[in-house]
Amino acid sequence: MPILPEPVQNLITAFERLPGIGPKTASRLAFHLLRATNDSAQQLADALAALKSATGLCQVCFNITLAGQSVCDICGSSQRDEAQVCVVEEPLDVVALERTGGFTGRYHVLHGVLSPIEGIGPDDLKIRPLIERVKAGSVREVILATNPSMEGDATALYLRQQLLPLNVRVTRLARGLPVGGDLEYADQNTLLRALSGRQEMTN
Amino acid sequence: MPILPEPVQNLITAFERLPGIGPKTASRLAFHLLRATNDSAQQLADALAALKSATGLCQVCFNITLAGQSVCDICGSSQRDEAQVCVVEEPLDVVALERTGGFTGRYHVLHGVLSPIEGIGPDDLKIRPLIERVKAGSVREVILATNPSMEGDATALYLRQQLLPLNVRVTRLARGLPVGGDLEYADQNTLLRALSGRQEMTN
Description:
- The structure is a homodimer of 203-residue chains.
- The first copy, chain A, has eight helices and six strands.
- Chain A has helices spanning 6-16, 23-35, 38-53, 73-76, 91-100, 127-135, 150-163, 188-196, and strands at residues 55-57, 64-66, 81-88, 105-109, 141-144, 169-172.
- A four-stranded parallel sheet of chain A has the order 4-3-5-6. A two-stranded antiparallel ribbon of chain A has the order 1-2.
- In chain A, helix 1 (6-16) packs across helix 2 (23-35).
- The longest helix of chain A is centred in the first third of the chain and has 16 residues, at 38-53.
- The first copy, chain A, is globular.
- At the A-B interface, helix 1, helix 2, helix 3, strand 2 and helix 5 of A face helix 1, helix 2, helix 3, strand 2 and helix 5 of B.
């Protein structure tokens, strides 16, 4: 006989499919919801159901936006400098950069990175629309903010090659020691990058 | 302007309410579902919606069962010894014990532990039905399998006092070194319990 009733097992299975959620966590979540008031399971169910139907992609930068809104708030804002475009891998990266409060330009979300192993080429990402955007003329600087990983670097390199002929400044986020980090625990590559990227101290 | 569209923020908030899920994990899950095919978010939503409506509690042992099924599979099975009742805190504990395959009796789920600090007394748990079950006469042994924690021990002690007058054998799960564990890393209390509970070796 099965140990768990089917509805509980179904929920555990659905949770287990999420990234970073193993069998133990999935059961814990399911049993938590079973014990909780009716509301919390229903709220989660409603939020999930609304997720896809109520969201879409910005037609300019491909960030997540409300369904029916063709241009996102950032692309639609006159406060944001259209001459600077920051290229990121995922919508979550936009959230991270916005939280810093230090960027006043606009974004372009690639929705992935080049990865020959996984068969992801330039046409699988939002690269062509980026080129078109730059060709349109108002962009002066493209900041490549893909992750400092092998794929992120390769994607940045590819984008640089594509963008340079278009007479636009192409920059990449700085590498170095993380703020609050400890030199002793920095890995070799980070330390090398911090050394080679050292800057003049100005009082 | 808000950084995230409302439907995405709603889902993140709903995930954050779950135990062990912080803001970072909640965003990661929400954006994973946003990127995934329509199915996985919908499957999770359906499983959540079905959870409460399709499940109920067994009227004998208070384990989770299918809605409309008044007695669970274990309590309804003639294969399971009704003379042995294993008392656990939560339905998940039944799953853990069933996985061992080493118990052929039945269960009783308390749905919590006594906790004066949180205001949980005997009447908030399924203690009275347990006493009634034992009074009915067919139970010979009650195995107290509440957690080896302060509250679990206190609850076991309370149950023992209530059960002893009923002329039933009351046992508690053994304490000692976990199998595969390392004596060097065992905490002091576990080691003390392992010492005081030492047993004769029989080849």
